[in-house]
Amino acid sequence: MHKEDQPLIFELTKPGRIGYSLPEMDIPEVDMSEMLPEEYLRVEEADLPEVSELDIMRHYTALSKRNHGVDSGFYPLGSCTMKYNPKINENVARFNGFAHVHPLQDESSVQGAMELMYDLQEHLKEITGMDEVTLQPAAGAHGEWTGLMMIRAYHEANGDTNRTKVIVPDSAHGTNPASATVAGFETVTVKSNEHGLVDLEDLKRVVGDDTAALMLTNPNTLGLFEENILEMAEIIHGAGGKLYYDGANLNAVLSKARPGDMGFDVVHLNLHKTFTGPHGGGGPGSGPVGVKADLIRYLPKPVLVKKDDVFTFDYDRPDSIGRVKPYYGNFGINVRAYTYIRTMGPDGLKAVTEYAVLNANYMMRRLSSAYDLPFDRHCKHEFVLSGKRQKKLGVRTLDIAKRLLDFGYHPPTIYFPLNVEECIMIEPTETESKETLDSFIDAMLQIAREAEENPEIVQEAPHTTVIGRLDETLAARKPVLKYVKQ
Q1: What span, in angstroms and rounded, lies between the C-alpha atoms of 452 and 448?
Q2: Looking at 210-343, which runs of residues are DSSP E strands?
Q3: Distance of alpha carbon 294 from alpha carbon 478, whole angstroms
Q4: Quick one: average pLDDT of 155-181?
Q5: What is the average per-residue pLDDT within 293-301?
Q6: Among 30, 81, 126, 323, which is 20 to 30 Å from 48 by CA?
Q7: 470 and 426 in one domain?
Q8: Lowest pLDDT segment from 3-7, 10-14, 402-406
Q9: Residue 485 belongs to some domain of the structure
Q10: Same domain? 316 vs 389
């Protein structure tokens, strides 16, 4: 990346220049004061830039080059699975029959779209080992809340109203305790043991007749497979609770292991991660939820069903937790995920897991010589390093992340999970080549050497980006979100 001295659009303004051409208005002008209260009417002209169409195009094209995305560079965010979005997905999502349907059309006119959604549900049931799936939730955290609301409804229907607590590991994704709180539960933390796995003795200590559920992902947030998952399920079910699967890390076990077979009762999936929907910057997303048989009655309504080869929405669900999203899910992302599953097939999804795990372990072993490795064991799709060694030299994990920007890489997740000091969490995904992995590894090794030999270059990074190092406190507390004329 190189610094760009492209002038801002406000600095290019020249009175009288315009970047648009509109036809003469052929309808009568309207007196806005008759439509809006006076206090909402603008008195002075808007202070907008006056530039040519060419300047506008160059301005926005220059801005687009400053963005980082999975199509422009390596994006190793731990637990986010920022992998390549196949362009065939985009082509299929743009088919007229998918792109131009309206959610309020009569069911008889959108049977093809409904068949795709129904078929996607069936595929996700097979992949997860669940008995039924809803596509309604809009994203992962929304899926978490939806699943927890079904668990809550289940306990209440059984008169078990004292089950007010949800257990989460100390390495849990931050959305887990947040979703539990929003769903009306209290959260209880279960500790990790020296191997980075859930401590079974501590789990037995915190579980009880007030336990509604245990939320976790497998592999866990440290990238380690919870090898005692069957015993954990037995402990929770024995106490009358439910087991919730956070699907953020499903990319590590596709076609190798199923949450339903591990003992989970509810699972949410991130179609925008595991199944290659484009995401980042707040959306779009899709967080389907799968459940075992005893929770089906509580699924959000309407439920998409097939009757006599006709697809329809079933609203007659008296025990449903109700609708959780207008219409029925994020259809465009569902189309992309369906296309991905159909083009990959079972063998392709299995290869996804194998290459994701291979890539992560390759990177972990090569970087373990320069960075601390808190859990020196085989990882799954992601792994965690610690920058404690560099911190002793005055270089923080945050400095390392900022220095990576000078090499053209998006930094990995840092300072998460919270139970690893100076945490660096890396997920390479299966879609990156060995050459890309080696280049990123070389950059990380160079930064480790710089921390020893010339720490200032890391502490003052980034050096080559458009925006240099910011005052972290001011940037967080007093961000400047608009252009200010000098």
Answers
A1: 7
A2: 211-216, 242-246, 266-268, 289-291, 303-307, 310-314
A3: 50
A4: 95
A5: 98
A6: 30
A7: yes
A8: 3-7
A9: no
A10: no
- Can you list the positions of beta strands (E) in 192-246? 211-216, 242-246
Domain count, the chain: 3
Domain hosting residue 31, numbered range: 9-66
Indicate whether 52 and 93 sit together in one domain: no
Burial level of 249, CB count in 10 A (0-12/13-18/19+)?
A: buried
Q: Return the C-alpha torsion angle 73, 79, 84, 86, nearest 10.
A: -160
Separation between Cα atoms, residue 253 and residue 352, nearest integer Å: 9
Instruction: Give the pLDDT of residue 65.
Output: 85
Structure tokens at 327: 């219409």
Token match 């609301």: residue?
149
Domain termination residue (choose one: 320, 343, 366): 343
Q: What's the alpha-carbon Rg for the chain, to the nearest Å?
A: 26
Asked if residue 146 lies in contact with residue 367, where contact means CB atoms within 8 angstroms, the answer is no
What is the tens place of the pLDDT at every residue in 265-277?
999 999 999 999 9
Least confident piece of the model among 26-35, 146-155, 214-223: 26-35
Mean pLDDT of the chain: 94
72 in a domain, yes or no? no
223: tokens are 């990238």
Residue of 484 and 328 predicted with greater confidence: 328
